[in-house]
Write a structure and sequence with these properties.
By secondary structure, the protein is an alpha+beta fold. The chain contains 26 helices and 30 strands. The longest helix is centred in the C-terminal third of the chain and has 36 residues.
Amino acid sequence: MINIVTQCTNTLCLDEEMEEEEESFFEEKFWFFIIPSVILLGISIFLEFFTDAVFLSQILAVASVLLSCYGIVKEAIKDIFAKRITASILMLVAGVASFFILHGQEGAMAILLYAIAEFLEELTTDKSKNAIKELLELAPDEALLKTAEGYKMVPTKEIKVGDIVGIKPAMKAPIDGKIVKGESYFNESAITGESLPVFKSISDEIYAASINSDSFVDIEVTRESSNTVVAKIAESIKLAQQNKSDSERFIEKFARYYTPIILISSLLVMFIPTLLFGLDFNQWFYRGLILLVVSCPCALTLSTPLANIAALTKLAKEGILVKGNKFIEKAKSIEIIAFDKTGTLTEGNLKVFEIFDYALSKEEIIKIAASLETLSEHPIGKAIVSQAKQMKLSLYPVESFKIIKGKGIKGVIQEKLYYVGSKKFFEDLKFNFPGETLNEVEMSGTIPILLGQNSTILGAITIRDVLRISAPLLVDGLKRRGFKSAMISGDNQQVCNTIGACLDIDSSYGELLPDQKLEEIKDLKKKYKAVAMVGDGINDAPALASSDLGIAIGASATDLTLETADVIIMSDDLKKILTFFDISKKTNRIIRQNIWTSIIIKVTFAILTVVGLMTLWLAVGIGDMGVSLLVLINGMTIFRYRTKFKDSSLENLESDAKIIICQSCETKNIIPQHHGRDMVEKEGKLICWRNLLGSDELEPCEEELPLFCPKCENKLEVL
C-alpha cells in the first residue's frame, strides 16, 4: 500500500531523538534564494502576458524554479530512496509537467508557494519541538557536590543516590533530593506550574529545576539525573505520542486508502476524457495534475497530531503530565468524576476540631490525652499532641502505658488509670456514656476520640482532616462545566457526608476498602458514559486503573502514579484538574475544526478542478499548503491558553494563631472551623476562610463569629 508521508508529518516525529540536522546553505540563507525567485517569476509572468518573448519568459520561470526547489528536490530524493510517495514528489512532478503543457509559470509559482509554505510550517512546528527540548534542558548540567575537602562542581550525570549536593540562593536544583541541612523558599513552577514559592525545610523533597530563592541548603540525592521528575516528564511526553488517540489512528488508516484512490482518480481525469471522448489532452492532463496536488492529504494527516503534541507540551508546562494523546480525547466523554477524600480533597493533615468537656475542663482533657498520646505513633495521637503544644500545655508523666491495637491506649497519670480511644473501645470496657451530646459528636462528621476514667467518660476530642483550599473551587468549577461528582472513601460515612455537603458533591460513599472502591467505579461506569477517578495513587491504584480516566494528585506519589494513572497533577492544586479539562476541550475542538476544514476544502477544490475552475498555483497555495498552514496555526493556538485560576496562597487564608484565650478568666479553646478549615481573625471577629479566597468562581461564605468569652463576656484574644 502506498502511503503519503508529508513534510509536516516528518517534522512531528518527536518520539525520535531530538538531534537537529545541520542546516544546508539553502536552508540557512532561505530568503536570499526565495526573493530573487519571486522577482524572476514576476518578470516571467510579465513577459508572457505583455510581450512576445515567450521563450525568455519560460527560461526565467525555470530559473525561478531552480532557486526555490532545493528543499523540495532534497526531500523528494530522500523519499524515493525510502520507497514512499510524498507531497514533495507530487509537487515536483506537477511543477515540471506543467512546463510540457505550456503552464510553466503556474508550475513555477506552485513550487515557489510550496517552498515558502514548507519553511513557514517548519518554523511553526519548531515551537512544539523546542518546548519539549526546553523541558529536557531545565535542570543544570553541573552540581555542587559536597566532599571531604568541601564543595566542588561536577557533572550532574556523575551524581549518585545518597550524595550530598549544595544549592546556593538563585541556583537551580540540579537533581532530586531531600533537604538535610538548611531551609529556604523554592520556586517549583517548572515542575508543578505554580508560580508561588514553596517553603522547604529538613526532610522536604526538592525537585530538579526548582529554583532556590533564599538560603543555602544541602540535599541528599534521592534519584539519579536520568530518573528525576523532570526527566520523567520529558520522557513521558515523547512516549505519550505513541499512545495515539482514536481520531489519530482513524486518520492514519484513512490516508492509507485515500492516497491510492486519489492517484488513480488523477490518472483517470488525465486520460479518460481524451481517450473516450476526444477532449483536449493538455486541458485534462492539467486538471489531473491539479487534482493530484489539491487532494494530497497533508492537512488531514496534520489535523490531529500537532494539536495533540501542542496540548501535551502545554499541559506539562502547567504541571500536568498526560500519558497519551488518547487520554486528551477521552476527556470529552467523561460525565462523572469520582474523588478519594483523604489526601485528595483534604490535605491528609489531621487536626483537633472540637473539645467536649463532660467532667473536666477542655484544657485538662487535652493535657491528659496528649500526655498519653505522646507515647503513641498514631496520626490521631500526633494531632492531639500538636494541639497541646499549640495551647502551650505542660504534659504529665505517664506510667504503665499500653497500646490496645486498633482500639486505643491506656496509662497511669498521678496514680489514676486513664483510657483514650474510640467509642467501641469504651463500649467494650463497659463505660457509662453521656446522653445526646456524644450522639451529636458522631453526627458532626468528625472522628470522636474519648477520654475516660473509672467507667466515666470525662470528655471527647473530635478530629477532622483539613480541606484543601482548592477543593471547593474544583467541585464548583466541574459543576459549571457540566460534570457530576462523587466521593468514594474509606473514611466514616458520616464524615464523608459532611465533607460532601460542604463541597456540594452529588453523592458520597464512605467506609470502602480498596476493592470496594473498585466495585463502586464499575457501578458508576454502568450508569455514565465514562468515569474519571481522582486519587493520591497509593491505596486508590485499583480504582484509578479501572476508571476510564485515572487522575493522580501530588508530585510525592509520582513514582507509583506514573505506573497507574493516566493523568498526573504534579502539585496538590486541585484547580489543575479544571485546567486539564479546559485544555483537553480546546484541543478536541481544534482537532474537529481541522479535520472538517481539511475535508470541506479538499472536496470543494476537487470539484472545482474537475469542472475547470481551478489553477495549479491556487491548488498549491490554498488547497494544499494553505490549508496545511491553517491547520498548523490553529493547532498552535493551544499554546495561547492562559489559566483562568489565580494561585491561592495559604498565607492569605490562615494565620499563625492556634488558640483563642480569655485573659480575664484564662479560658482556652481551639479556633473553630467552617467549611473544613480554621476560621480567620479579621477586624475583631472570626470569619470563614472562603471570604478571603478572592475568587470570582466561588460564592463567598458570610459566616462570622464575635470574639467574646461565653463565661465572662470579655473580649477573646487569638494567639
